[in-house]
Amino acid sequence: MIPIQDNIPTHRFAIITVLIILLNALVFGVELLWTTGGDAAIRALGIIPAQATADPLAAETLRRLLTSMFTHAGVLHIGSNMLYLWIFGNNVEDVMGRLRFLLFYLLCGAAAAAAQILVNPSSSIPMVGASGAVAGVLGAYLLLFPRARVRTLVFFGYFGRLVDLSALWVLGLWFVLQLFNGLLVIGAAQANMGGVAFWAHIGGFVAGMLLVWPFLIGRPRPQISRRSF
């Protein structure tokens, strides 16, 4: 199930969302040009749970926490994250305001990393990706626009069909799947097990739902207008 667009128009250009996407693309380009290979880039830029657990407030840990949010493991990884960020992030930025949205995004990313580290604190596998921060955006969007319509590509076997679904269904189902997979792997977590950081997704999503209202204090209430597809 791949979201294509939503029907909530924005009132001004989402410059922070675009800049985040461009920065992610720039870092991915640097990864591709990294002289010692992409894996070395991931190890240099990703946050390593075992190191973060040993010294969580060290400058190196905080640096890796930041750089890991803009580092990705492949084209599909960055492509899916940036697609979700573009579709849902522009509306959250529009309601929240630019600087608040930037801080919100970074805090959700930090909360996501913390959640994954708590589940697997001894792992020596670097964690990378914007997924946790983007998950926070999804959590905020779900609370702000639960009845928004999201044009979604749904696959039936080898065939795909465009279907208009409510954000409640699209994002709610996404979260349920993350939670289901997270519960499956939590008991099997091993120090050096890689793969998808489901608990980062879960932590980011929950953080987004908890932080969205404090970040809207003093902001105008969102005017929910919708456009037809």
Structural overview:
There is one protein chain. This protein has 229 residues and is mainly alpha-helical. It has one domain (2-216): Rhomboid-like fold (Up-down Bundle), CATH 1.20.1540. The chain contains nine helices and three strands; from the N terminus they run E-H-H-H-H-H-H-H-E-E-H-H. Strands 1-2-3 form a three-stranded antiparallel β-sheet. Helix 5 (75-96) packs across helix 6 (98-119), helix 6 crosses helix 7 and helix 7 (131-144) crosses helix 8 (167-186). The model has no long low-confidence stretch (mean pLDDT 91).
| CATH topological fold name | Rhomboid-like fold
Number of domains: 1
End-to-end distance: 18 Å
Q: Helix amount, in percent? A: 55-70%
Q: How many beta strands in the DSSP annotation?
A: 3
Total DSSP helices: 9
Give the helix/strand class. mainly alpha
pLDDT < 50 runs, ≥5 residues:
none
* Name of the CATH homologous superfamily: Rhomboid-like
